[in-house]
Queue: 3 jobs
Job 1
Amino acid sequence: MERRYHLGEFEETVLLVVATQLGEAYGLSITKVIEEELGRSVNMSSVHTALYRLEEKGYVKSDLSGASEKRGGRRKRIFQITAVGKSALLEAKSHREYLWSKIPEYIFEGGGS
Amino acid sequence: MNQTEKRYPPRLAERFFYWYCDDPLKEEIAGDMEERFWDHYEELGASKAKRKYWLNVLKFIKWHTLKRRNSNRYTQNNLTMVKNNFKVAFRNIQRHKVYSFINISGLTVGITSFILIMLYVQHQLSFDQFHVKKDRIFRITEGGDAITPNIIAPEIERSFVDEVEHSIRVYDQSGQVITIDGESYTERVYYVDPGFFSLFTFPLIQGDASSALTETKSIVLSQKAALRYFGSTDVLGKTFDLEGKLHKVTGVMSNVPANSYFQFDFVAIFSDLGWTKRETWSNWNYHTFIGLKKNVDPVSFEGKMAEKLKASQVEWGDDEPLDYMMESLNDIYLQKRFNLEYEMEKVGNIKYVYTFSGVALLILLIACINYVNLATSKSLDRAKEVGIRKVVGALRTQLIWQFLSESFLFAFAAAAGSFALAYALLPNFNELTGESISQSQMLMPSFIGSLFGLVVFISLLAGFYPAIMLSMFKPVVVLKGKFSRSGTGSKLRKLLVVVQFVISVFMVVATLVVKKQLNYINSKDTGMNREQVVYFYSDSDLNKNYSVFQNKLLANPNIESVSKASHIPTNIGSAHGIQTGETENDWELIYFMSAEKEFMDLVGMEMVEGLSLKERAVPYAELDSAGKNPTYIINETTARLMGWTPDEAIGKSVIISGYEGPVQGVVKDFHFKSLHQPIEPFVLMANPRRNNLVFAKVKEENVAETLSFIETQIGELAPELPFEYTFLDDHYDQMYTFENRLGMVFFTFTSIAIAIACLGIFGLISFMAVNRAKEMGIRKVLGASVIRIVVLLSADFMKLIFIALVLALPLAYHFMNDWLTNYAYQIDLGADVAIIAILFAVLITAITIAYQAIRTATVNPSRVLRNE
């Protein structure tokens, strides 16, 4: 049976950010990317919850490392995307592409943003 | 990054975070938050950064970040022990099948009875509680009567405009002929004053509550009646004949709920009853209800009202005015304040509500005692288990919890069974009590919730003592093998058995007394012959053609006699006053009825002295015309009241309601009201205009044919009159349905209580037999006879029964004597009740223990002794 991936919209965003930040992704860094680069207001705790769920689903794995003085000497939990996580992202992407290809072109003609 | 400046994240917030956050997550989250804090600190400054830090701490309170309160291992162990407790309890239930069966079935029957009785009690207590203004509605009463003169309501309305919102007369009239589309029926109709629907909460689904009964010849009917007669509830504005007059439907009300004192389908306007128009102080037939305005104190108003009414009576010419009182609507159905005559509808009795609640509790108690007795008598079995558990390290509290969870399991199983059983039995129970309690009552969350509460209550009540006792064993004693059937708990067990038997014997005596009294009532000679007498209402057509009708009926050989009268002679509720002294102000109530000349023979009234109705009948109404004296036939009680012997009474002048006339005869006392009351003064008169009931005495053979013959005759002479007949003895029996029902209910639940108690004794003797098997074996070897052993085993119980009888009998006699004072005519308690109760108790115990005792006594001693 083909595996089905369940990825919520926000989870997908977080997972994508994790993938972009190869080995550097942790709660705060992801929050910053979403806030600053995507211009979307978000809560640290929601990002944390999403990461926690993604880890439960096996889409990311994590390790503690990289303590700094700014953190009061505490380590970060660095998240990495797993193979399953990659497949989930690919599937989500292909679903979108498929649906995009199905949209008749004239729908977006005439500049409806 | 200026940590040197001692600008730290708020310490309190951090501490709070550390307090709630789960350990493994603390480091990373706190780290992220602190990093964020310094970012904010640089961008936005200290105070904003601090505030944001606080916000973050609060936002991180999520399900997955919360600390798992107890350490994982501890939680799981606790849970496992709970599971294990239930598992052990369940295995115990399976291992001791008989024991478990006795216990669970006893509890089930007990709880089922409890549930049913509580539903009944709840139903009784809910009567009339649906009226929005219930606390402000009062009925005006006088002395022992619920009925009052028709002037009371208007008088109060006129005098207390500031205090009284509504004052309403209600008069119920049965046998009202309605004609719809050419078909005639008789119905009971309430005649009420216009504010009826504003005062009482009987919602109209069509029409307007405040104006429905304002126009003359308006009528409101119930949904039920509308459907029955019109096939639709959309009947506003339709018309039909009521008592020959065209009435218009001005409202349809939703059906009257079962828990309403008023029970009616038709409401018409009081003033449409022509003969009630004149307001007098002597026309006593009406129920007067008043609705007080908000914030009027009923107690002080009652005094004020009584004063005012007295003054009005004096003004009217009555020197000894009566004292009128107020009875709250809340008290009417259950007769909390008064026990009145002439209720228009069925009433209950708060005493019976208490009695039933008591019975329910007693049954539950008996069932719980069973559990305690059986559980503690099993202590020998459980002692080793307790010993081992303690050695392995069980705490006493853990053991207590274990035994409590066992009793919870029992109680829960029993309650689940009871719920199903009670649900299934509710229709039968309704039949028994004559109430209509809906099964949906049992599905309400509040009911299920309280049932669950009951389970907890029972498991504590029944399980607490066994749990304490069983968890008390000392492992050393138990495991050394020294522990034997010690005295622990056996005294208490005996005490509990005595309690059970006191309750049972009490209930047996109560049942016997109730039965005896009811039999007495049912068979008491009321001084009248009720058998084979049928009666029905007449109408104006029939009255016109009455002599033709009478002759036609008498031509039928199966009809012995036909006559007319104004009242049903077993239930006379109209009274005049009879002057007993020199002046008009000395008077007593005297009940009256009017009849035709054949009536006395028809119902078997006997004359003591003087002329009967047959020999002389001068109508009451004609007395003014030619100085004729009206017929007054008084009963013996009236003669006694006046201080005459029957002999002397003849020819003496009496003044009844102001009309003077000589006594024409004295009729033998007969019971014209329920046997709750003594016989009161009564006068028989002739007043043809009031004779609206036809009585016929029919032969026992071919009753059905005779009745249809009567119907045909009516159809010819009075086509509009429906033939709806009642047998006089049925009517009489109906007056005692409540008592008879009560007797049945009592009988049923007493049987149940006794059955549960016996079940317990059976369980106890079984364990005793097992425990004492070796002792009995040795006795047998040494030469004891079977009988001796049976006696030995039973003696213990018989002693307890004896003690119980000594305690219960005086108690029961005392209470039942009290109950009998409700009746004006009562049985002697006598010794027979006690003798039957004693025989019954001894016999039932003997039967219960016989099986086990004989089995133990006849078993081959080698079988019980070979293991030693």
Job 2
Amino acid sequence: MRIVLVALTLLLAAPVMAQTTTPGQVLQAAVSQAIRPGVLEFTSRASGLSIAMNALCRAPSEGTLALVKGQFRQAALAYGRVEFLRIGPLMEDNRADRLLFWPDRRGIGLRQVQAILAEEDASATALDTLRAKSVAVQGFGALEFVLYGTGAEVLPAPEGAFRCAYGRAVAANIAGIARELANGWFAPSGIADHLTAPRADYADYRTGTEALEALVGLVSHGMEAVRDTRINPFLPTEERAARPKEALFWRSELSFEMIGANMEGMQRLLDQSGIAGAVDADHSGLGASIDFEFRNAARALALVTPPMEQALADEKQVNALNYLVIVTGSLQAMVGEQLSAALGLSVGFSSLDGD
Amino acid sequence: MWQRRAFLKAAGAGFAASLLPRQVLALERNELVFASAVQTASGGYGAVLLGERGDLIASIDLPDRGHDITISREAGRGVVFARQPGTFALVFDPDGREAPVTLTSVAGRHFYGHGVFSPDGRLLYATESDFEAAQGVIGIYDATDGYKRVGEFPTYGTGPHEMLLMPDGVTFVVANGGIETHPDFGRAELNIETMDPSVVFVDRRDGRLVGQLRLEAGLHQLSIRHMAIDGRGRVWFGCQYKGAPSDSPQLVGYATMDGAIELVELPAGTLADLRNYVGSVAASGDGGMVAVSSPEGDLLVAIDTEGKRPVLVDTLRNGCGLAADDAGFVATSGNGEMVGIAGAEREARKFDFLFDNHMLRVG
């Protein structure tokens, strides 16, 4: 049925939107309409989280803790909308891992966070010494454990002082990295300029083709990462039962919203850049097909509700998640292969996959 | 190295049976034969044998994407390894007397796409991942007993990639890329902050660690992946940098069995055009040159191994596969092109399949 609908969408959309956008406009719009606004939003949310953590530590209370948790959600989702931007500033200085070390396959990060809390390691409560520690204890994963993990019930009380101080340092670190990201994307003669006006003597983007390949690659690899690190690890398979604790943010019950934020961020880049409008008339329906798959993804996500353990015990929700795996794979192929080919790019065969 | 006539004699019966007359002609007049894994026009995967003029001699289908190929005249077999984290390796018989055999990695292991035969062709070795322990291993297969897996050696590191047999015939050199992955998480790289790449020499007879070489500590995010051995027995390697993209570390170096490891200084412009990514390394027939490729930077660089400096820089869109021919190198691309560089005079050819990262000179 889905195939029929895709075909129909292709037919209906075909005559209209051929080559309405030039590659230069695509790159310009990607930066100004999607990337920079996304990074600024994250900076603002991260700053809100840091302020709220300060307030909690100064005056611990249930009310302030609830505020902090709300800010945590906002900041994490704002990051979810930009975390696929794995070029330039996010890849400098281990920032992506410092913001969110995931997957933590062997639980190394978790054990390090637990050790900091158990030993009341004072060096984890000051920003400069925290930054020198393992990437796994500096970001959202660590802060989620501080706010929702075992022992978090002390936070609204005076005996939660150390836990709060550590959380405050982590939140400040997240806010600092968010500012660095924004600074990177707004730096004069920085990545934004290189991406939007490539030049042969730039080390990163020498031609418009390379810049477009980078954009397409972000979404194609982003889809792969969502599927491989945010959905598949917890789904039941023929060989094993569901593993709800392999889900990112199962404690804060933000797992599904985070997947939604990831998809939203990638959709925003495609939509706002108008990249699907930069293809020739033969491929003019591709944009509509991609939109259609994003709607399918949103529909599947609307069917799942935390807590993770209960969701994975419900066949209907597991089916929706399995469907989401298919949709992310389909989007990866549509963007990484079909759109890429329609734009005359070559993404992903012998390069860009680290082999 | 197979001689052309030996190959013809060996290959003729099996492959030629299904070849068209034009292809038989190609086989008969070719001087050199090359092999590569490919993606077919229909999106499937396979491996091909090509004559030096670009004639397609034979092809086999693969269940999924292949990576590197190794061939042993002594074993009378070639092997295409699945690209990581694949779980198959296809053993084919150039003699055509037996159908291809598909090996499957054992539980808890997957292939990394590279391997070698023992000099006598009786054992096949493959780089593999013990992914629960995040440790690399060399899987050992008995070519005389249906390629049964008979054991494994450690690679003394994580994420092993290419392995070669040193000219002494008893020492392996393995590039431990240093990157942890796990099939539960697809191709996600799990330890970028703490990766620990190395070049190791391992005794083929007992798996003993002969030597382990690391680059300086500041370069722990420089993943050592592909290698070739020059005329003096030095192991040239190419790296992929996983640290900040604005860093531009040197990417090509060599290691020796007596414990030296160093990066060579490529000029800044050339280095920048490699884009922190070397996809394959090959040595020339006389071992006096090595070539490296970057499909990310569309660049091919040939380096004089004595002077340790580039003697040729060329571009090839999405170019990665490299193999020596009699004069220079043959290079192939993910866009389906095959060209000659560094003295190899050959007409550029375009195929309707796409070449994977590695090209092997068969004979």
Job 3
Amino acid sequence: MMDAHRQNRLRALTTPVILIAILLAFVLIITATGDKSLARMAAQTLIRVTFVVGLWIFVGNSGVVSFGHAGFMAIGAYCSAWLTLRPQMKGMFLPDLPPWLASAEWPHLPATVVSGLLAALVALIVGAAILRLSGIAASIATFAFLAIVDTVYSNWEGVTGATSSVVGLDRYADEWVTLIWASVAVLAAAIYANSASGLALRATREDEVAAAASGVNMYRHRLLSLVISGFFTGVSGVLLGHSLGVLNPNSFYLGITFITLAMLVVGGIGSLSGAVIGVLVLSVLIEGLVRFERGIDIGGASFALPSGAQEILIGIIMILVLIIRPTGLTGGRELRLPAFGLRVRNSKQEPQSTN
Amino acid sequence: MTKLGVYDLEVRYGKVPALGGVTLHLQEGERLFVSGPNGAGKSSLLKAIAGAVSSSHGRVELDGDIITGKSAEAIARYGLSMVPEGRDIFSTLTVEENLRVGTGIRADKQAIEGDISEIYDAFPILGERRHANAGALSGGQQQMLAIGRGLMTNPKLMMVDEPSLGLAPNIVDQVYDTLVALQQERGLTLLIVEQSSARAARVGGRMVLLRGGQVVGDGDAAEFAKRDLLKEAYFGQADQSKSMEEAL
């Protein structure tokens, strides 16, 4: 009995291993081409994987759609800028930072972790209020949170640089660094989803009344998942800053909110695999179409799509995917290794052997 | 010893009264059927006791503790489990995951695996399909799973809302046989909503008849079954509640 259960759990943990292998293969293929711009695209894609997987930890398990996670991304990104920018730069562009922050020059990893933790802390405070709501009201409240973050970061001139961008961030977040963080996020998401809390939260997603009757405190599990989710989306913001080298509040507003939600829905909101696959498929498609727009040579003749065609085609593709597969490309299923040899244990033999 | 005491419990949905002052008692280890026509307030009674809807008046006591006004989740921790009507299972979770959801509140973690295999013994089909999505089960299997899940919180009192709804008679027999066996094994107190007094009489136990949100009859299920037959035989759609009141 214990064995069968443990084996099933191990089997569930093959999902992150497969997903990380896919991400690794993705990076290896891109680096094999030796194309610098493709490598940048890979890093951007992996940052989105980190973000969407972080988003999924909350949205996928709770069933509550959040429009506010780009806010956590902004909080993480700016925090890392405060901690890692050279003090002279901060003196010039961010004159109102408190002295201890203005003089801080942290190494990358601690800055990333602390920035993620700040986003998680904000998630805890905001979630404590918002998650008392349920359904669409909670979703709208997350959107209000995003609007608040955007307004603050767009206007707090001396601390965030407001709408004039913060520049000079160390661009260390290449495809390998982002691969590591994306993998950590995937692993954490799989462990959370298979934990007691993740299970309880998925039960509330199905049926709040029955879950409560089973002794599940929905609020507590939602809050825990939002905090973990906030951490990884915060980290993805850090990576975005250190990939582009530039921070602007606009990068963390509606554009990223909707494209990432679209990736999650197209991949399949019900599964972690869906979150990862959705980002990869849409990112590759977007990159391909962007290149098509610029023009490609086939047998001496040059073809190019009219500009703007990329957005329209992506829109059409998303509509088609959702018409054909309303539950997303993965249909809410996880990628798993087949259960070799497990079938015997799972059949009638099992219950008898335990007694 | 009184396990459950319901005192003058009222439930309103907006201005519509669903339950108008119900008082009833349930002894430890007892089996009580709640019957009555549609809209009599059977489900409202269960939901109000379990904290899934709030009552506008009255109180509920479990083992002498007042549980009225507590959240459904807190009431589950008191050892009261409700199996909702319509086989409300978590359909995208597997059978085993469904069973594990209720174990989060238990302190005796080491007993969980034993309890799960006990439920697989009681309902072998669930053991065979433990890794299947619960939504893929048949109606009868879903009802078994809902009951199994209700047991996983290790309740002392379990309330089951219409376990026979929409199931074939032989499946209903199987569900009741298992419920009765589990009750004897675990010393459970059971409160079951059951429309058919004949069915309740065959299983055996006390029966309370609800009508228009009020208790209109209370007695041995077998008595009700006899009355029902008489009623059907001689009076057609006669006022069941009156005949019951006379009978008692």
